Amino acid sequence: MPRETAVDFAIDRVQVLAPDGSVDEELDPDLPEDRLLGLYRTMKLSRRLDERAIALQRRGELGTYAPAIGQEAAQVGSAGALSESDWMVTSFRETPAYLTRGTPPHVLLWYAMGMEEGAAVPRETRNMPPSVPVGSQALHAAGLGWAQEIRDEDAATIGYFGDGATSEGDVYEALNLAGVYSSHAVFFCQNNQYAISVPREKQTKAETLAQKAISAGIEGVQVDGNDVLGTYAVTRDALESARGGDPVLVEALTYRRSLHTTADDPSVYRLEEEEAEWEARDPIERFEAYLRDRGALSDERIAEIEASIEDELAEEIERAKEGAQRIDPADMFEYVYATAPPELERQRADFGGESDGE
Amino acid sequence: MPRETAVDFAIDRVQVLAPDGSVDEELDPDLPEDRLLGLYRTMKLSRRLDERAIALQRRGELGTYAPAIGQEAAQVGSAGALSESDWMVTSFRETPAYLTRGTPPHVLLWYAMGMEEGAAVPRETRNMPPSVPVGSQALHAAGLGWAQEIRDEDAATIGYFGDGATSEGDVYEALNLAGVYSSHAVFFCQNNQYAISVPREKQTKAETLAQKAISAGIEGVQVDGNDVLGTYAVTRDALESARGGDPVLVEALTYRRSLHTTADDPSVYRLEEEEAEWEARDPIERFEAYLRDRGALSDERIAEIEASIEDELAEEIERAKEGAQRIDPADMFEYVYATAPPELERQRADFGGESDGE
Amino acid sequence: MANRLRTIEAVRGTLRDEMARDDSIVVYGQDVGRNGGVFRATQGLIDEYPNRVYDSPVAEAGIIGLGVGLAAYGLKPVPEIEFAGFTYQAFHQIQQHVARLRSRTRGEFHCQMTIRAPFGGGIRALEHHSESFEAGYAHVPGLKVVVPSTPADTKGLLTASIRDPDPVIFLEPTRLYRSIREPVPEEDHVVPLGEADVVREGEDVTVVAWGAMRHRVLGLVDDVDASVEVIDPRTIAPLDTDAILDSVRKTGRCVVVHEAPRTAGMAAEITARINDRALLYLEAPVQRVTGYDVPYPLFARESAYEPDDDRIRAGIERALEF
Amino acid sequence: MANRLRTIEAVRGTLRDEMARDDSIVVYGQDVGRNGGVFRATQGLIDEYPNRVYDSPVAEAGIIGLGVGLAAYGLKPVPEIEFAGFTYQAFHQIQQHVARLRSRTRGEFHCQMTIRAPFGGGIRALEHHSESFEAGYAHVPGLKVVVPSTPADTKGLLTASIRDPDPVIFLEPTRLYRSIREPVPEEDHVVPLGEADVVREGEDVTVVAWGAMRHRVLGLVDDVDASVEVIDPRTIAPLDTDAILDSVRKTGRCVVVHEAPRTAGMAAEITARINDRALLYLEAPVQRVTGYDVPYPLFARESAYEPDDDRIRAGIERALEF
Ligand SMILES: Cc1ncc(C[n+]2csc(CCOP(=O)(O)OP(=O)(O)O)c2C)c(N)n1
Ligand SMILES: Cc1ncc(C[n+]2csc(CCOP(=O)(O)OP(=O)(O)O)c2C)c(N)n1
Ligand SMILES: [Mg+2]
Ligand SMILES: [Mg+2]
Fold first, then answer.
1. How far is residue C111's CA from residue C114's CA, in Å, rounded to a whole number?
2. Global pTM?
């Protein structure tokens, strides 16, 4: 054997709806028109929510906010491929994904208002709350998918994270453990080209992020993340594989068109030309053009959708603000344990002014 | 592009000295005979030291000990390829590697006697002390190699770890960071098929461990770990690459022929047949046969070497025991900081009976 | 009915009983399968429950992080970390997720997980295998921290921990795994978390100790020329403050013994709680007899590091003679 | 000569000065390059030292683990962890290697590393961005833990930390980065580690506070109807016990204020040290005014969590009126 090839691998890249409007017939998920319009509306809703949230933050009504502008196709396509029995595990930039799964905007706003109410995602929805420590939640996705395998459930789990997250040990461990335990996990990496200011090329010497899957012996695939039909189709297939115990890593190639968060200033570290390039590849515009082409959308219909989004958001923002009025800080003692131990009860009493000792 | 290959990879496997005694001419490192005999003696020395250490542990004279029996070619070949200006970073089973780098046996015994003296490896030797937390030291190797890059030094760092370690986030982070920072690191994974009782197949779904390198965009290669010429040649090339800023992951395929540690009982979790199979592939025997073949070794010469090893070890064990007599527990206060702060001085005084308060 | 069991057998028996009782319990960790755990705590379980007992790769953060997913799903993970010194690899998962899942979701989710780990020194173990970080975990709100010291308490506390809806760090003193044998109730046996055990009543001085130190203390108090009350808190967090305060209010003197380093250790917290609510009862400073503020040494020096009989006796004497 | 600087400017200036002085210093961490750090602490450094300032991938264990290698080689790593709440990802590297490199090698190696991290709450930050774990690090022998509270001290302490042969966790209160401006010596300025600052002398009660709490305390003591001595320990480990004890021996009363949760926090350690050596001087229990034993809440509830003026004042009153 002196020197021979022991094993070889390839990473594929998929695109269904090309920027020029052409659709690959074979890969086209062939979704019914109302589904397509549903995805479209959610993408628009998310974009608009992000814009309003940034404005609210600027007025001091929200805390730090992480917009997903530019990543709508990646998230709405992938989350759109989930069924109700699947679980979703998110990072901190998954507004489009939560909206796709039916989480109302006011809940997402609560989180940005610094309220735990925003992370109190109902367990029945099978959505996990947002996770801020980069990459840490990939393990939770692997664990949920493992539970589905243990319980032999015909369901899967999607776990979102970013390009930066792929440098965290937790993510590698998640991929590897998912492989070992036949976890029903699909790891969905949104490569939006930046981890705050650090560009993708400085994050790893790897040519693709999808190839991180090879370290775990599981499948990895790249998809055009600005192509909602592509992200849908690839995720649908990945979920199918995962339901059978073969986890998959999907890398969606996209771009964080806006700020990292409202605390960030991208002009310090990236060029306008680059931003302009990606503006031209905007996922909503591509999808809109396609829907117009096939006659599913008209100027009129778009105006209607936009108006309904404005109405919805106006109401949701109102609801978020109302909720914020009602919070009772004392309830922070409530949820530490199922039953507060005596020392914590003493502290609660002290907080409430019921005791004169700390 | 609908679906196309974005990138592909291959992992090679190398063998120079085959079990049948044949040598690949092209890959043969062509070492001078005294070097070959030096490697041979170190392999024998290590084997014998392990055997004596196990016996000493059974008599209560050592603590838990991790023998490297079966892994001598992997370690002596790889450490043998280092130059004096290179750094070595070890795990807890690197007796052969330390011996190759000139660390005397009594120091290794001290570590097993529960003495920090055994980890007080002189800094000038460019050997790091043993590291018990699995995989954690891979990052130190990446860091040393990064320092070599920062200082533009024509030197490299080898970092040892096992198959089990490849599941730790630290190891993946080390590979990735080494790639990003052009660290002069060679990661040398001894795949000895077990992490305590857990076989390699349960550690990861990956077909090889070398392919973990792909996740970092660095080179990965497999080598027959029971072939000392192979491990030497592959490591020499890897070090050369690393000195130029291209880190490499080497997976040496070998077998932990003995216990995990003296606290372990392999009969619980593996079959004698398997052990017998690998006994037949013993690295020392293969190398010995080769050296006999080329006329470098005779029964007489072997007897001489064995006798000199017995003498050396008798002395070294004596020296280790003598050292153990001399330890002063009070010096544990000495090395916590460069200068002990007052509270620690108080504790030291209390320990020494100089104070009557804690 | 009660069998005379060692601690390790109590662990094993409890795991088996609880797994039989509740099929949502999943046991996993390095070497817990065929090998039955490096201390044999899980021996045989994989044969009985092949689909609920798993060997894990060497990945502590992964083990705990997966557990968060299992718990969110509704299973009850009981992972083993091979030694408490390697829970550090998972510290971020414990601090950021395990401890907070309930509070950050206002109770929508909770994390019913019992993390078992061999704990403490004294068995001539390798580096990093003798750690005592109970104070570090007690400082993380949302966790419970338990240290059993007898076979019967091991059963009672492990049962309570596994059934507790909140996450528990269950630290098993390695030194006690095989050193003591005592009757352990065969039937359901629950020692509620947060209740100390007044192991021995006395009038003159209170000694608080857990894990192996409890036994070291008990081994010498007969020779002390005073009436010593010995309290084993059993649960480090939440601590049974009242039991300790009641005792100190009676004795006026207190010694706290632990293996962990002194600074910011649990003896400080206990001292502070006495200060908070029983200061005027103190007739002497609370004596902290603890590990020194040095990294736990390799075993040739470990007996010099940990509180030994002399140091404990001296502590008691200082408390008495102040 | 002294310039009026903000804390963040003091950090930046000190890094620049020390890098000029010692070419073995390497600064790295997430976003510390072109972006100049998320708080701009490293702004401009990469232009001056392109070969000694590096952006890091998002890998905290990696950042710290690489630092161990750099330090072993002989360089002096000064990594930034983006927020103290993410040092947990590196806790094992800190505990197992950074803190022990010297002791486990009997001084053959040492780890001259200063780990900088923004610390504490009060800036309406995201989840996990407001952590105070100084007690957890103080409990790890081999580490030094520093919390600067003024721009001048920031320079003096950061200089001392970087030059210290032992590893330092340097926790920079985010709330103070831009809130205070004061003269900072332009010339070499070293505040020795382990020396508290008696910020304000007083006779009736001692208040110990660090970070943002020091300023909160100073902001209200004028209104307290008593003479208050305020001590900022500056170094949490090693703690300047004598400075605190001297003060308490004088005042007989003490209040410790910190943001971290109470149980097993530094207030417990300070209380215990007072108990150890100054118990008889106490005229009232040491008052712990701290964060509650709940996970640091999201910002809508953070002002309810952290010690506010009322709670601090009440603590001082309890100490005075006991
Ligand atoms: C463990 C951890 N380290 C650092 C941070 C600070 N931080 C927040 S977002 C971020 C970059 C994440 O990049 P990526 O994974 O690409 O996600 P993106 O922000 O692009 O969605 C960093 C470093 C964090 N939240 N968690
Ligand atoms: C972080 C950590 N987790 C667990 C252990 C306990 N442990 C010691 S050796 C070992 C297996 C290591 O396997 P491998 O990496 O293959 O090395 P080998 O023992 O085969 O040389 C484990 C799990 C440890 N030392 N460190
Ligand atoms: Mg990104
Ligand atoms: Mg192995």
1. 9
2. 0.98
